[in-house]
Amino acid sequence: MSTAAATQHIFLDKQHPAVWRALNGLGLKVREAADAAGIDRKTIELLNVRTSQLNGCAYCLDMHVRDAVEAGESHQRLAVLPAWRETALFTDKERAALALAECITELPDHRARELDEGFARQHLSADEFSVVSWLVITMNAFNRVSVTSHHPVRRDR
Protein backbone atom coordinates (compact mmCIF):
# COMPACT_ATOMS: atom_id res chain seq x y z
CA MET A 1 0.00 0.00 0.00
CA SER A 2 1.37 3.39 -0.94
CA THR A 3 1.86 6.12 1.64
CA ALA A 4 -0.74 8.28 -0.14
CA ALA A 5 -3.33 5.48 0.04
CA ALA A 6 -2.52 4.85 3.69
CA THR A 7 -3.14 8.51 4.62
CA GLN A 8 -6.22 9.07 2.46
CA HIS A 9 -9.32 9.20 4.63
CA ILE A 10 -12.17 6.80 3.96
CA PHE A 11 -15.55 8.40 4.50
CA LEU A 12 -17.55 5.54 5.98
CA ASP A 13 -20.84 7.15 4.98
CA LYS A 14 -19.72 7.30 1.34
CA GLN A 15 -18.10 3.86 1.32
CA HIS A 16 -21.28 2.14 2.56
CA PRO A 17 -24.21 4.49 1.91
CA ALA A 18 -26.86 1.88 2.75
CA VAL A 19 -25.39 1.46 6.24
CA TRP A 20 -25.26 5.26 6.60
CA ARG A 21 -28.92 5.53 5.57
CA ALA A 22 -29.79 2.87 8.17
CA LEU A 23 -28.01 4.89 10.90
CA ASN A 24 -29.86 8.02 9.77
CA GLY A 25 -33.11 6.03 9.88
CA LEU A 26 -32.33 5.06 13.47
CA GLY A 27 -31.71 8.72 14.23
CA LEU A 28 -35.12 9.65 12.82
CA LYS A 29 -36.88 6.93 14.85
CA VAL A 30 -35.14 8.09 18.02
CA ARG A 31 -36.20 11.69 17.28
CA GLU A 32 -39.81 10.50 16.89
CA ALA A 33 -39.56 8.70 20.23
CA ALA A 34 -38.10 11.83 21.83
CA ASP A 35 -40.98 13.92 20.50
CA ALA A 36 -43.49 11.36 21.81
CA ALA A 37 -41.79 11.39 25.23
CA GLY A 38 -41.89 15.19 25.38
CA ILE A 39 -38.13 15.74 25.15
CA ASP A 40 -37.74 19.18 23.58
CA ARG A 41 -35.29 20.06 20.82
CA LYS A 42 -33.11 22.22 23.10
CA THR A 43 -32.56 19.25 25.42
CA ILE A 44 -31.85 16.96 22.47
CA GLU A 45 -29.24 19.38 21.16
CA LEU A 46 -27.68 19.81 24.63
CA LEU A 47 -27.24 16.03 24.71
CA ASN A 48 -25.83 15.99 21.18
CA VAL A 49 -23.34 18.73 22.03
CA ARG A 50 -22.25 17.21 25.33
CA THR A 51 -21.82 13.75 23.82
CA SER A 52 -19.83 15.22 20.93
CA GLN A 53 -17.65 17.17 23.38
CA LEU A 54 -16.84 13.98 25.27
CA ASN A 55 -16.00 12.18 22.03
CA GLY A 56 -13.99 15.07 20.58
CA CYS A 57 -16.05 15.13 17.39
CA ALA A 58 -15.43 18.54 15.79
CA TYR A 59 -17.76 17.89 12.87
CA CYS A 60 -20.74 17.01 15.10
CA LEU A 61 -19.94 19.85 17.52
CA ASP A 62 -19.99 22.35 14.67
CA MET A 63 -23.35 21.04 13.47
CA HIS A 64 -25.08 20.60 16.83
CA VAL A 65 -23.96 23.86 18.43
CA ARG A 66 -25.56 25.60 15.44
CA ASP A 67 -28.68 23.42 15.84
CA ALA A 68 -28.83 24.21 19.57
CA VAL A 69 -28.66 27.97 18.96
CA GLU A 70 -31.31 27.61 16.26
CA ALA A 71 -33.50 25.75 18.79
CA GLY A 72 -33.18 28.68 21.20
CA GLU A 73 -30.29 27.53 23.38
CA SER A 74 -28.26 30.33 24.94
CA HIS A 75 -24.59 30.93 24.23
CA GLN A 76 -23.99 31.10 27.99
CA ARG A 77 -25.34 27.60 28.65
CA LEU A 78 -23.42 26.19 25.67
CA ALA A 79 -20.24 27.84 26.94
CA VAL A 80 -20.54 26.27 30.40
CA LEU A 81 -21.87 22.91 29.23
CA PRO A 82 -18.61 21.03 29.98
CA ALA A 83 -18.95 22.27 33.59
CA TRP A 84 -22.73 21.78 33.88
CA ARG A 85 -22.35 20.17 37.32
CA GLU A 86 -20.81 23.41 38.62
CA THR A 87 -23.67 25.74 37.71
CA ALA A 88 -27.35 26.18 38.46
CA LEU A 89 -28.13 27.11 34.84
CA PHE A 90 -29.63 23.68 34.05
CA THR A 91 -32.89 22.21 35.33
CA ASP A 92 -32.94 18.99 37.35
CA LYS A 93 -34.33 17.15 34.33
CA GLU A 94 -31.56 18.50 32.08
CA ARG A 95 -28.95 17.62 34.70
CA ALA A 96 -30.35 14.09 34.91
CA ALA A 97 -30.21 13.75 31.12
CA LEU A 98 -26.65 15.13 31.02
CA ALA A 99 -25.53 12.77 33.79
CA LEU A 100 -27.01 9.84 31.87
CA ALA A 101 -25.36 11.06 28.64
CA GLU A 102 -21.95 11.17 30.29
CA CYS A 103 -22.50 7.78 31.90
CA ILE A 104 -23.43 6.12 28.61
CA THR A 105 -20.64 7.81 26.66
CA GLU A 106 -17.82 7.28 29.16
CA LEU A 107 -18.96 3.92 30.59
CA PRO A 108 -17.47 4.50 34.05
CA ASP A 109 -17.10 1.82 36.69
CA HIS A 110 -20.19 0.05 38.03
CA ARG A 111 -20.58 2.24 41.14
CA ALA A 112 -20.36 5.52 39.20
CA ARG A 113 -22.88 4.20 36.65
CA GLU A 114 -25.28 3.24 39.45
CA LEU A 115 -25.05 6.74 40.93
CA ASP A 116 -25.63 8.54 37.63
CA GLU A 117 -28.41 6.18 36.56
CA GLY A 118 -30.04 6.52 40.00
CA PHE A 119 -29.91 10.31 39.76
CA ALA A 120 -31.40 10.13 36.25
CA ARG A 121 -34.20 7.82 37.43
CA GLN A 122 -35.14 10.35 40.14
CA HIS A 123 -35.83 13.02 37.52
CA LEU A 124 -36.74 11.14 34.34
CA SER A 125 -39.68 8.85 33.70
CA ALA A 126 -38.92 5.37 32.35
CA ASP A 127 -39.87 6.61 28.88
CA GLU A 128 -37.63 9.69 29.17
CA PHE A 129 -34.74 7.59 30.55
CA SER A 130 -35.04 5.20 27.61
CA VAL A 131 -35.30 7.96 25.00
CA VAL A 132 -32.35 9.90 26.44
CA SER A 133 -30.35 6.67 26.39
CA TRP A 134 -31.24 6.06 22.73
CA LEU A 135 -30.43 9.68 21.82
CA VAL A 136 -26.98 9.35 23.38
CA ILE A 137 -26.30 5.88 21.96
CA THR A 138 -27.19 7.16 18.49
CA MET A 139 -25.11 10.34 18.87
CA ASN A 140 -22.15 8.20 19.96
CA ALA A 141 -22.53 6.19 16.73
CA PHE A 142 -22.65 9.37 14.61
CA ASN A 143 -19.59 10.72 16.46
CA ARG A 144 -17.63 7.56 15.77
CA VAL A 145 -18.50 7.64 12.08
CA SER A 146 -17.39 11.28 11.79
CA VAL A 147 -14.22 10.87 13.87
CA THR A 148 -13.20 7.69 12.02
CA SER A 149 -13.98 9.29 8.64
CA HIS A 150 -12.19 12.54 9.55
CA HIS A 151 -15.21 14.55 8.37
CA PRO A 152 -13.95 18.10 7.89
CA VAL A 153 -15.34 21.20 9.55
CA ARG A 154 -15.69 23.88 6.94
CA ARG A 155 -14.95 27.50 7.73
CA ASP A 156 -17.90 29.90 7.92
CA ARG A 157 -18.10 32.17 4.91
Automatic annotation (TrEMBL):
- What Gene3D superfamilies does its record include? AhpD-like
Q: Which residues form a coiled coil?
A: none
Q: Name one GO molecular function term.
A: peroxiredoxin activity
Question: What residue stretches are annotated with the Carboxymuconolactone decarboxylase-like domain?
Answer: 29-102
UniProt name for this protein: Carboxymuconolactone decarboxylase family protein
Q: Which organism is it from?
A: Pseudarthrobacter psychrotolerans
